[in-house]
Amino acid sequence: MERHQHSNKVVRQFKRTFSETALNELGKARRFCIREREVTPYRLALGLIEVFASARVETIADLQRAFNALCGTTVQYKPFHNQLAKAQFPEFTRALYERLLSELACDVLRFNPQSPFARFSHITIHDGSSFAVKETLAHVFPGRFTTIKPAAVELHATLDLLTESLETVVLTPDSEAEVHQVPAPAALAGGLLLADRMFFIKAYLADITTHGGHFVVRTQGRLNPLIRRAYRPDGREIKCWRGLALNEVKARLSRFQEVDLDVLWGKPGPALEARLLVSWDREEKRPRYLLTSLPREDFSFQQVVDAYRLRWQVELLFKEWKSYANLHAFATSNPHLAEGLIWASLCAATLTRYCAHMTQRLMQVPVSTRKVAMCVHHVLTDIFHALLHCRRQLQRALRWALAYLASNAQRAHPKRDRLRGRLKLGLEHVYGVA
């Protein structure tokens, strides 16, 4: 009985998110569709999301045929293409994506109270993913590697670990530096940022600390701060390293499997005090560096290392985009059409993740977002068909979808997740519906 009540909430969520009135108004507000004909914003939104999440899409004709099949229409290729070629098309699909991000986010993970990471209100992971587009778009989307990828785009993504959902996505030419799209330090107050080495920017990290946030960032080997304290793996201080520059002791790092340093950068440049964790990679015969503001008395060396490994969750998201949501180059020289299809692909990926999250919460089983992305096409068409043609069947379609995904998309090794996987630091699955 309780599960049915929860599924009723999901039905209401779907009806609200995919309201015909709201989506048509969204299209009109972006001046994408002033007069409603067969390719209405509502129908197009459902048609694009359904096909991007369900099948490999190679051409615009694939989208047109899928649209006709789902909507029961006979729209010909040219008028369909003309709608997607409008300058307002990416404005509409981006607004649709922002709507889905706002409507479909929910908590799916939380730290147990005993974990030192439970103090953070949010765990933010920031990174970027790029891919090539058609070469004729190089004047709009220039790539970094002009010989290999003359035209390419970059998606700068900020992921919240506890919701497994994106907070923001910014699309730019691949030639634009990723550091221009980092989360604002004020937005990280009370939270923890996990980022790769390209985000080792001293002024930025100092601002995060000033605003009450924390960070774990990978760094390159070309850093040379002043060492204030240095500790061996057994906790004993290496007193002879006090006051030395890091370059003066780099030749001695191979003696230790781990070294935990308090370091300082002073003038010239912004002052930054932090903790530098150095581990020796015996296979590659070089040190690896992690910089963090997490205090040693609360967070051990290994806990910081394990926290940084959670950054991999954003890489898994990028893989889902490209492998299961048709995020790839299309054979079009129209920049509006190309960008609009990128946002449509992200809409499909967002809905797929929501299906995974609600299956986990309602059916109370750990669910793999990757497995859901692989098999959601078996249930999504029925859901969208009910939305378009018979909303009385929506509840039945959603209940069947939840049951199917709970049986076929569970995580393979939940015990391993707790021992040495993503749940190692005290993360737990959130079950039930608030």
Termini, distance in Å? 16 Å
Supply Rg: 24 Å
Count helical runs.
15
Largest sheet: 9 strands, mixed
Structure report:
With 434 residues, the chain is an alpha+beta fold. It is 42% helix and 18% strand. The chain is built from 15 helices and 11 strands. The chain has a 9-stranded mixed beta sheet. Strand 5, helix 7 (202-210) and strand 6 form a beta-alpha-beta unit.
Summarize the structure.
With 434 residues, this protein is α+β, with helices and mostly antiparallel strands. The chain has helices at 2-17, 20-29, 41-54, 60-71, 77-84, 89-103, 202-210, 246-249, 301-309, 312-324, 335-363, 369-375, 377-389, 394-408, 414-420; strands at 109-111, 122-132, 152-160, 165-173, 191-195, 214-219, 226-231, 258-265, 272-281, 286-292, 427-429. Helix content is 42%, strand content 18%.
SSE order and pairing:
Layout: H1 2-17, H2 20-29, H3 41-54, H4 60-71, H5 77-84, H6 89-103, E1 109-111, E2 122-132, E3 152-160, E4 165-173, E5 191-195, H7 202-210, E6 214-219, E7 226-231, H8 246-249, E8 258-265, E9 272-281, E10 286-292, H9 301-309, H10 312-324, H11 335-363, H12 369-375, H13 377-389, H14 394-408, H15 414-420, E11 427-429
Parallel strand pairs: 2-5, 5-6
Antiparallel strand pairs: 1-11, 2-3, 3-4, 6-10, 7-8, 8-9, 9-10
Helix pairs in contact: 1-14, 2-3, 3-4, 3-11, 3-13, 6-11, 11-14, 13-14
